[in-house]
Write the structure tokens for this entry.
Amino acid sequence: MKARMQTMLTHFGEENVHGAVIPPIFLNSTFVHESYEAFQEGKGHYYSRVSNPTLDVLEKKLAALEQGEAAKAFASGMAAISAVLFHFLKQGDHAICSTPAYGGTFGILGSYMHKFGIAADFVDFRDTERVRAAIKPNTRLIVCESYSTFFMDVFDLEAIVSLAKEHGLRTVIDNTCATPANLRPLEWGFDVVVHSASKYLGGHSDVIAGAVIASREIIDRIVQVEYGIFGGALGPFEAWLVTRGLKTFGLRMKQHADSAMQIARMLEASDKVAKVNFPFLPGHGQHAMTSKQFDQPSGLLSFELHGGKDAAARVINRLRYFKIGVSWGGFESLAYSPGMSGGHDQFAGTEYEPRLDRLIRISVGLEDTADLIEDLQTALEAAE
Ligand SMILES: *Cc1c(COP(=O)(O)O)cnc(C)c1O
């Protein structure tokens, strides 16, 4: 009998220590051994930069959540993503990444890795033929995200995986936005899932953490090389916080989904809103593919106003419960507009560029839905 998600999160992977109902935090840096020979055997933990019992608990739960063989917890989502990219790419290699991509991923693949002779192309994955056309003899890796940044585009995961298999390419997906409550990319054939656990997995906006989930073989190799060498280990206290957050993960995601759906419908009906970027709405062009791949939405969506930057600023400033800030996935509702900050190089010259200033991204939190709807409706009055 296989436990369902919430049951698994409550019990799985936790050893009983003194009958404590909550697993303890092992804050030790090193582990001592009975003898010279016992150390040589290399069983168990030896140094917390590599592994730690508090992280074990979290890693077991994360692997089970994503239906993977193994998981490794990292100090941040970016630590996880960089380790995976450096693991699969070497000098002379080429990667193809979906666009618009998370800013950090765009930063590593789009420029930083050039100094190692690693190139990348950012491609519109909504059309799999464009991905096919971007494949070069030195392409090694396909990188994509469960939703595109800001615009919430989704991609045909089955087609991407079959294209990759045809060409012998590895596939990596950042599943932070959708979460394994709604989408499990390993079931669609992806090789590796990466996460920022700072978002929904932690869920309380009190921790920065990341994770990689894949086959035991891939995880073991990443732990032996990139995890140890780059030193992106998650601290035990942070691991414990993510594990605590996970206890309510399934329940939180249900509430985020329900609230986001109601809010998206309200926005769609508003004459102040030109466009709602939320592929779970039946009128959205990618609705059929979305229903096929995702169990439910998360609390993330964006909408575009008829006005430009000034209208977006007025609406954001009028919000009361939605706080102004980056990140998302916590219990609190947040709003952000790309016009508030620079660093959107990847949009230059694209169809997305003129839409950035009039776009507001919201992370629908766990407040009462009716209050959030009233808050947005009041704020939208400031749009013109
Ligand atoms: C936040 C985020 C990251 C980076 O994670 P950190 O924990 O902030 O390092 C990567 N990808 C996506 C999609 C994110 O939202």
The mean pLDDT is 96. The longest strand covers residues 139-145.
